[in-house]
Amino acid sequence: MYDLSKMPEKFADWPPEARVEHLAYRFMKTPFTNAIDEMLEHLYWPAGLEPEGEGCFIVGDTGVGKTTAVRMFTDRKYAEMRAKDPSGKWYRPKLFATDLSPICHMTPEGLRRPIAAVWVDPRPRFNSFMADTALGLGIDLGSRFSFGKACIEIANAIEKQEVKMIIFDDVQHIIENGMDIYGVADVFKVFAKARVQVVCVGMPDALKLGDENEQLERLVANSYTVQPLRCSVGDFPRLDDNGRLLVRTERQELTPYRKLLRALDRRNGKNSVLPFDEPSDLSDPNMALRLHQSYRGYTGKMMKLVVRAAKLAIARGNSRITMKHFEEAYRSASKCSDERNWFRMPFPQVRDVFGTVVPLAPVRDEEDEDPAPKSRSMTGKGGGKRKSAMSDGDRRMVEDAFAGRK
């Protein structure tokens, strides 16, 4: 790890490893990341002030950038909390299979966990889901446990650690594998009763949870769907056959996609997003249209392609990212032929077919892979809704715990 604040002014003087590290810690704000940040902030600040916790769903296709947007919110809260209270030890343990991390603060009085995070297993069953949720609070339930006692342990941990928000990532796995929806609702209810805000992140199918259970319907009602960024040839002034503008001064308003690329490529010394001393002209039509078409506006996938191309440029000692770097990076990621490589095509061909040809499906990164087969049903074999996983006795134990009668 390098102390990037002590690096020279010019990126050319940095070690290649430091430039790659710089890439990993830079995120760009977009209209949807701003909307998600505002949505989560409105959930976070009143946590614990109302009789029950609330929640929301943030959904979108793989690679659209939903998890990154949530991570940007947690990163901002982490910086704010550390600045407000620099005492003790602040840290963020890494979680398997997700970019999300909890926020932990070790104090003389014990561990605080303002924001907890849980990754949902690709093949969840009720017991494993409950155990993983408990582990998100540092509780090991062991191989055998009752739901009621597990709820009490979780309730105690929430109180001791002062948990205000818990984030579940990849909640679509619950739908895909036909897990007991009523059991899921009972787990979420534990947090709601403890006045903790519940955030669910996943694919659009995750919204079906609200169709199956009234307890989850309220969470699903407060949802945000992340969409790919729009782009068309008409977003640019008239272009020549090399993708260059035919007018000297552009008067039309920039779209969110073009604003993103311009901000991504802006030179601002060591505060630049891309670790290069020269601009890579990403917002030029010749580059912007190719980049958008390669992954149809899915922000997360496009940014991964930019990072791959940037790494090639850094490894070769180049001062910026070129079309050649993108050509190689896209070929490697998509396994496409040269004829279908958007960064090899003549610009007139890109312009003429832009938005009409679906590119080859990219080879997904390991973190995007989901080996679990999809289930066709969310109900039992008889087609009816399943019973709640919590017995009346367990329910009374949980109610007693929250009421202080434990």
From TrEMBL:
Residues 392-406 have a biased composition (Basic and acidic residues). InterPro entries: AAA_22 (IPR049945), P-loop_NTPase (IPR027417). Residues 362-406 are annotated as: Disordered. GO terms for molecular function: ATP hydrolysis activity. It holds the Pfam family AAA_22. Coiled coil: none annotated. This is ORC1/DEAH AAA+ ATPase domain-containing protein.
